[in-house]
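Handout, section 3.2

Students often ask what a structure token actually looks like in practice. Rather than define it abstractly, here is a full record for C2H2-type domain-containing protein. The first block is the sequence as you would receive it.
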Amino acid sequence: MSQEENQNGNMNKIISIINKAIKKCPQYEHSQNYLLESRKIVLFNEGLRDQISKCQEEIRLLQKELAQPSKKLRRKAYEISKKYKCSNCDKKYGSEASLNLHCKIKHAFSETDSKTQIDHSFQI
């Protein structure tokens, strides 16, 4: 077999493979706008990609919130029982430290002079 016959045989095999592939393909419909359909699919995929990225961002934020401990919630002023009363004025405080700070700032006494007195009228 010559080289030219060998090339023709290979070419015939390739052509028969292409013809078989063409027979398996659906027929081209002239009424169908394939370019418009492909553009619709591209736009739809872009929309899906945007939704996926938004969901991934939300997931990252939620994971970040779960990983970090949240701030300690403070009690409201009306929730604090104020049983420490200033001996110099009628102010009441929820902790001895707050009362001592008040006395230092407002009354200019030392901590030993401003010993706390618990208001006995306070009921739990």
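Discussion prompt for tutorial groups: The radius of gyration is 42 Å. How would you have guessed this from the sequence alone?
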